[in-house]
């Protein structure tokens, strides 16, 4: 099993957020999680990435034959987990190019692969950026600093395509994007998709799923997955909302 | 702040000061204590002319009547001036060695260990270095190349003998001996330091640099540096410093004077890495430094850049007197304090001439239980028509037990002056750390990246050869001695 979440219960500040959640993702699959605000979707993403504010009450997560809770944030990332943030944070003064260069090399180090040198990295970055319609000038700026909402999301996808993760979690990547930006972002995701990597797409709206075709759609309400199925569920939600699942 | 961050910060504060070794060398030291005899001794050792001794004694009589300035946000036990050695030199240094064959190999080895090779074949490319060990100058590289251009780069002791006219004219002209007690003390007992004169119209083709090393125990280092840039000339000068780890505090009270004549430019950079004391606050250098530049001529420019990572106490305000019309003063500073370090640093910009401009960028980073204060004074005199100042002070706090303070004074006697001031204080942000780590960077790498990003505006002002070094020093400071 590639990713296996078993009976996961999580709380933060005395509030139970996830309740006995189960989810299995195989290699090469695209899963979408849909749910109303406050259902625990982002908590799930952050628990997977290893954010420390949460208390794990119960459950197990297996990721590529590792007990996920044995790995810290950076080890999970180096093992191939990538989280595209809902609100990417600004890091003034830290230039994108060396930032991503260190990131890719820390992953290669863990995988016992040779580090990539400056020149080859610059080439790689340029070609990936142009694939995503990202202006070269943007690569001279500090991480997320002064970016518009759309630029930030596009830049998340650029990082994802550079780091080429085994599991990419997209947390509400569609929020705040106009249709053009949404197309670019989803194009990026579709280009990256292979039979060896998996996607977990968290979204509030069905719109995103017009562009990325999921193999499975899960409805999350009140901290648990209440229904799973194919893309027909997304259409159902589009029509009737989340009401009937609650 | 979560537990992992605290753990990392804790591991940072374990002291890893890598310059803390002691060179085992026979040193000549007269008795401890400050009196006329020791001043006469120093003057005699330096083979100084009579007028220099008189100058020193005059400063000493001023010092006796003065008290230490007390306005800084620093606390430390009273300095016992009678419990300090005022002169210490490796034996046989009555005369400066002619070449390296006359220098004790242990000394050469010391500088090799510090990354400052002195042998001709290994000297740093593009940088001329004067190295000062305790009270004496050991060697100056690239001297003859510079002489061809008429540039004088020597120890101040040598300049007193060879260029008395320049010394008499300029020494103490920017920092009068009686300015405050530390300048009086330095004027009385200064031992060595560097002297630079750039003749009219000459752009100095390489970086000039002095490396100060305190080795001997209980010894004060009082260096004196004087840089004169004649009309239309340019020089970039760098200063670096280290000292061994010792449990006692040691005093360092330097005076640095810069003079830029018409159309001249001086760029002065410091990377200060004196021993900061251990994680309990024991030991470390007391660094009381007076640095002042005079933009004497029209269109002249003086720019100070400092990276302050060391010392138990830093008391330092590199300043500019903008006398010439259209002259420019700049101050770029990064000060990192950790453990029990205290820094009170900033600048003074005095606008006298018309259209004078000054710019202040200060970045303070506090870790551990340290206290970091920016103190600045910008004043506009009556005739400073259309003068401008821009000040930006940013503080970054890492952890919960440190402090950052900003104390800006502004005094304007001319209503055409334009003054801009921006200040910010922030904490290292858990979300930024999370973001970096989610991309696969370790916690330490992430902190170092964020802090370096915070300092970037200042670090990029350093000469190329040293910008990388300084960046490394900032990282080392975070991982080891300073934070």
Describe this structure in words.
Chain A has 7 helices and 12 strands. Chain A has 246 residues and is of the alpha/beta class. Chain A has one domain: Rossmann fold (3-Layer(aba) Sandwich), CATH 3.40.50.300. In chain A, strand 9 (167-171), helix 6 and strand 10 (198-203) form a beta-alpha-beta unit. Chain A starts with a strand and ends in a 6-residue tail after the last helix. The model of chain A has no long low-confidence stretch (mean pLDDT 90). Chain B has 483 residues and is of the alpha/beta class. In chain B, 24% of the residues lie in helices and 34% in strands. Classes of the chains: A alpha/beta (246), B alpha/beta (483). Chain A binds chain B through residues 49-53, 72-74, 77-78, 82-83, 85, 88-89, 91-95, 99-100, 102-104, 106-107, 110, 142-143, 159, 163, and chain B through 2-4, 429, 431-432, 434-443, 445, 449-450, 452-457.
Architecture blueprint of SSEs:
The complex is a heterodimer of chains A (246) and B (483).
Chain A: E1 3-12, E2 15-25, E3 30-34, H1 41-49, E4 55-63, E5 66-67, H2 73-78, E6 81-84, E7 91-95, H3 96-110, H4 118-131, E8 142-143, H5 149-163, E9 167-171, H6 179-192, E10 198-203, E11 216-221, E12 224-229, H7 232-240
Parallel strand pairs in A: 3-10, 3-11, 6-9, 9-10
Antiparallel strand pairs in A: 1-2, 1-4, 4-5, 7-8, 11-12
Helix pairs in contact in A: 5-6
Chain B: H1 3-13, E1 27-28, H2 36-45, H3 50-64, E2 89-90, H4 105-113, E3 127-133, E4 136-140, H5 143-148, E5 152-155, H6 156-162, H7 164-170, H8 181-189, E6 194-198, E7 207-213, E8 224-229, E9 234-242, E10 249-252, E11 255-260, E12 265-272, E13 284-295, E14 301-308, E15 313-316, E16 319-322, E17 328-337, E18 342-351, E19 357-366, E20 371-380, E21 388-397, E22 403-412, E23 418-427, H9 430-438, H10 443-459, H11 464-479
Parallel strand pairs in B: 3-7, 6-8, 7-9, 8-11, 9-12, 10-13, 11-13, 12-14, 13-15, 13-16, 14-17, 15-18, 16-18, 17-19, 18-20, 19-21, 20-22, 21-23
Antiparallel strand pairs in B: 1-2, 3-4, 5-6
């Amino acid at each position: 099993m590639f990713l296996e979440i078993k009976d996961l219960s999580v709380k933060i500040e005395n509030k139970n957020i996830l309740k006995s959640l189960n989810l299995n993702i195989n290699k090469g699959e695209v899963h979408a999680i849909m749910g109303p605000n406050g259902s625990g979707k982002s908590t799930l993403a952050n628990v997977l990435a290893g954010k420390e504010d949460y208390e794990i009450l119960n459950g197990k997560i297996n990721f590529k034959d590792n007990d996920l809770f044995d790995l810290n944030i950076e080890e999970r990332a180096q093992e191939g987990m990538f989280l595209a943030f809902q609100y990417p944070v600004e890091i003034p003064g830290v230039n994108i190019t060396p930032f991503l260069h260190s990131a890719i090399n820390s992953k290669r180090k863990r995988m016992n692969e040779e580090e990539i040198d400056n020149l080859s990295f610059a080439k790689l970055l340029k070609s990936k950026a142009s694939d995503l319609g990202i202006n070269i000038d943007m690569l001279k700026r500090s991480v997320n600093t002064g970016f518009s909402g759309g630029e930030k999301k596009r830049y998340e996808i650029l990082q994802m395509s550079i780091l080429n993760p085994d599991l990419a979690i997209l947390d509400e990547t569609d929020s705040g994007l106009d249709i053009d930006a949404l197309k670019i972002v989803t194009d990026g995701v579709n280009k990256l998709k292979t039979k060896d990597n998996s996607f977990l797409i968290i979204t509030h709206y069905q719109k995103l799923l017009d562009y990325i075709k999921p193999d499975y759609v899960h409805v999350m309400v009140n901290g648990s997955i209440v229904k799973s199925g194919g893309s027909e569920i997304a259409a159902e939600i589009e029509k009737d909302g989340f009401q009937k699942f609650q | 702040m979560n537990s992992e961050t605290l753990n990392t910060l804790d591991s940072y504060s374990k002291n890893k000061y890598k310059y803390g070794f002691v060179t085992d060398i026979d040193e000549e030291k007269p008795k401890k204590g400050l009196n006329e005899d020791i001043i006469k001794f120093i003057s005699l050792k330096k083979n100084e002319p009579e007028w220099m001794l008189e100058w020193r004694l005059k400063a000493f009589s001023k010092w006796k009547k003065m008290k230490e300035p007390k306005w800084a946000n620093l606390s430390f036990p009273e300095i016992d001036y009678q419990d300090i050695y005022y002169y210490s030199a490796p034996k046989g240094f009555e005369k400066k060695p002619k070449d390296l064959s006359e220098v004790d190999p242990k000394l050469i080895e010391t500088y090799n260990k510090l990354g400052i090779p002195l042998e001709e074949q290994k000297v740093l490319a593009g940088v001329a270095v004067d190295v000062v060990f305790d009270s004496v100058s050991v060697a100056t590289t690239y001297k003859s190349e510079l002489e061809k251009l008429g540039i004088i780069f020597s120890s101040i002791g040598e300049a007193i003998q060879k260029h008395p006219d320049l010394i008499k004219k300029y020494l103490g002209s920017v920092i009068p001996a009686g300015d405050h007690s530390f300048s009086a003390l330095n004027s009385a007992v200064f031992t060595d330091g560097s002297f630079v004169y750039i003749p009219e119209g000459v752009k100095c083709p390489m970086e000039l640099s002095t490396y100060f090393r305190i080795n001997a125990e209980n010894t004060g280092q009082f260096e004196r540096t004087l840089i004169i840039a004649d009309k239309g000339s340019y020089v970039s000068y760098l200063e670096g410093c280290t000292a061994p780890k010792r449990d006692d505090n040691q005093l360092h009270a330097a005076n640095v004077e810069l003079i830029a004549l018409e159309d001249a430019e001086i760029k002065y950079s410091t990377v200060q890495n004196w021993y900061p004391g251990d994680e309990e606050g024991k030991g470390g250098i007391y660094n009381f430094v007076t640095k002042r530049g005079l933009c004497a001529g029209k269109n002249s420019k003086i720019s100070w850049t400092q990276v302050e990572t060391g010392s138990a106490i830093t008391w330092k305000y590199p300043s500019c007197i903008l006398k010439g019309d259209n002259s420019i003063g700049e101050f770029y500073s990064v000060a990192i304090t950790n453990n029990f370090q205290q820094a009170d640093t900033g600048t003074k910009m005095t606008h006298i001439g018309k259209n004078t401009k000054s710019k202040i960028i200060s970045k303070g980073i506090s870790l551990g239980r340290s206290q970091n204060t920016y103190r600045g004074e910008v004043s506009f005199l009556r005739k400073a028509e259309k003068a401008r100042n821009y000040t930006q002070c940013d503080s970054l706090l890492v952890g919960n037990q440190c402090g950052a303070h900003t104390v800006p004074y502004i005094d304007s006697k001319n209503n055409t002056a334009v003054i801009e001031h921006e200040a910010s204080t922030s904490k290292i942000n858990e979300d930024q750390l999370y973001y970096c780590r989610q991309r696969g960077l370790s916690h330490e790498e992430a902190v170092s990246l964020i802090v370096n990003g915070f300092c970037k505006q200042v670090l990029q002002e350093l000469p190329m050869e040293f910008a990388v070094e300084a960046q490394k020093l900032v990282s080392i400071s975070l991982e080891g001695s300073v934070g």
